[in-house]
TrEMBL record, chains A, B, C, D:
Organism: Enterovibrio norvegicus DSM 15893
This protein's pathway: Amine and polyamine biosynthesis; betaine biosynthesis via choline pathway [regulation]
Top-rank taxon: Bacteria
Function description: Repressor involved in choline regulation of the bet genes.
Protein name, UniProt field: HTH-type transcriptional regulator BetI
Residues of the HTH tetR-type domain: 8-68
Length: 209, 209, 209, 209
DNA sequence: TATGAATGAGTTTTCATTCAT
DNA sequence: AATGAATGAAAACTCATTCAT
């Protein structure tokens, strides 16, 4: 008689082990045998639950991305819809959430980004995520500046977020969330000042802060 | 006597083939046999010239980074030393040089960045490069604003450069150099205005443009 | 559950196959693929059980040496502790035990002796074995002659044993155990006579036989 | 125009290099490339002079055996034909000649002995040499004891010689010629005493010494 | 005569996957 | 559900040999 509810235990357990192994030895060195050893189960079990290594990898990447956006969602929920600047900062801060920026997550995230380039399924996943960040930012920025400018600034913020992550992967200590957020907040602030000078029809920003 | 000067032909030929294969199938799929097939030579030759796959990979990464910084160097040579803003833009433009931003180089660059996380030799290489970009930018920015602020802005610019590259890897058409440079130039411009307002002792910027 | 107890079957099976292949084609020709073919299993299994060819070779050498000393131990158990001459002959006979002297074991033994010269782990193994033979012999001879002389004679006997093995490897029919033992017994007899002449305080030998 | 007399230079040069490399890394590790590097020439040259690696190895083995028997021949020339015991000791001493017993020659000699087991040409060479030692010894011993006994003792001496060599290979300091010769001389002496007791028709030995 | 570039066969090893238990 | 024994394909690498120069 099979133990019931095993999938709910085994799947996250294996995904966790996968991240840990990728952190240890890189994506290239993350073999099924290493992952199963880390999880304390047999190698065959991966096929049982994920239909193969590929399935486990996809699930792991989904999990990484899910973790990342859940940090953003959580913080957004705390900020009023009518406070665009606050919401933008929430998005930024969510991206540098405490448990996101340690070396382990940074390396796994980067490994998947590179890997996704040649795996259509993962590529789509990654692209959707990148676009979502952009549209979230654009949506809020449109309340503070003209649409065209909003799109432009959103691209800048998104690039800075990912660039800080990317460069943070080279740092053994990971990313310092505070200075990361400060850099982007500074950028945003300048853009808002610029916007208010150029077109006085978007004065909301000053009032809100 | 054997054919002379072959190393000068074979080594770049194999490095080229390596980039092409990484572009095709990713770093994970870039086997020695695939690379040698692409180069039209036997697999054994890679050991002959690079002492193993590892040597070829390191050389390829060096080549990618070299290409990147040579674009920067070339453009810097055309700009007067007393024009910091011009030099910063030269650095930025060099990073989005025409032959840098096609999908092939972007993907190879990203693949190596991720791979370097677990290869000490490549890691050092990558880190040195990332630091060089930063110090080049800081050096010039110091002529336009206080040292502390210069370091801060340099980080911002570096992050935007790498972030645009990273996000560009998701784009099948590669990076659009013009809008990439425009985004960073805009950021720089705002920072300069801010600096001149805050401390009138760095007025050079206005005169130079 | 998988088939249990396979290691207990596979390991000796692979060691046996290794000896057979070394006998057939020599140590240099004993490839993993040949060995696994002889054992009727796949090549990969060797890594599964021995962690690589090296592990298999070490285990095989241990097995050869174990077989050799078990022959000696067996015969020693049948001889009274107070009969040094009998014990020495038991050691000698054990070294020319029936299943030791066929061409197969002789060649494997010699191949390993030569190979061990450049493999620290095997070298130690071989050296320990050579020393053990010597100390066993010395121990018994000390009851029949002065210590210094005992050490001298022990070296002689050990040399003759190994020399007969070595020269036996050149003989397609292997070693003739009887004449091998006879040659060494003759040597021992002469040494005992010499000892009893020189120092009448070691008369035990005559009484015991 | 070819340099004349090159074979007379190159062949011994390569044979020397081969022995040195076998000493360094063992027969298994002695690749053509390593040998040619040691000799300071190109790899292709070995085919030129020896028709392949095999030819070089055979020549090297011949050289080792030649060196060994030349030591014996030299010493035999100094001893009167009518002094069998002296001639036997000359043979023994020749086998432990100063330049024979260092670790380098010992290891090469042993490596070839083991290797010869599976190379008909080398096997014959080795066998002829082993037989020659035996017949030299028998020839002299026949002048001191009955033919049958002479053959028996010759086997004993030959076994001790080779046994001491074999065991000497395990000793980093090589073989101590003096104690090696002493062990065999002792054995010979006992055999001669025994022979003179058993059959007084072979009294020469005593007179000669 | 001599080189060393180049090859291709063969080696060990890794690894995802399958499967009997 | 879970194991780990077993496989076979593919990987990197080694190496004797060939050959144009």
């Amino acid at each position: 008689m099979p133990k019931v509810g095993m999938p709910a235990i085994r799947r996250p357990q294996l995904v966790e082990a996968t991240m840990a192994v990728i952190d240890d030895v890189g994506l290239a060195g993350a073999s099924v045998s290493l992952i199963s050893k880390k999880a304390g189960v047999s190698a065959g079990i991966i096929n049982h639950y994920f239909g193969g290594k590929h399935g486990l990898m996809e699930e792991t990447m989904r999990s990484v991305l899910r973790q990342l956006s859940s940090g953003v969602q959580q913080r957004l929920r705390l900020v009023d819809r009518s406070d665009p600047k606050g919401r933008i900062l929430a998005i930024v801060e969510g991206n540098f959430d405490g448990n996101q920026v340690n070396s382990k997550v940074t390396k796994t995230w980067l490994a998947f980004w590179a890997h996704a380039m040649h795996e259509p399924a993962l590529f789509r996943l990654q692209r959707v995520n990148a676009q979502r960040l952009l549209s979230h930012l654009t949506l809020e920025l449109k309340m503070l500046m003209p649409a065209e400018r909003a799109a432009f600034v959103a691209q800048g913020i998104a690039a800075m977020i990912d660039g800080i992550w990317l460069r943070g992967a080279l740092n053994p200590d990971g990313i310092a969330p505070k200075s990361a957020v400060a850099a982007i907040e500074d950028y945003l602030e300048l853009q808002l000042q610029h916007a208010s000078n150029a077109s006085p029809s978007y004065p909301d920003q000053q009032g809100k802060n």
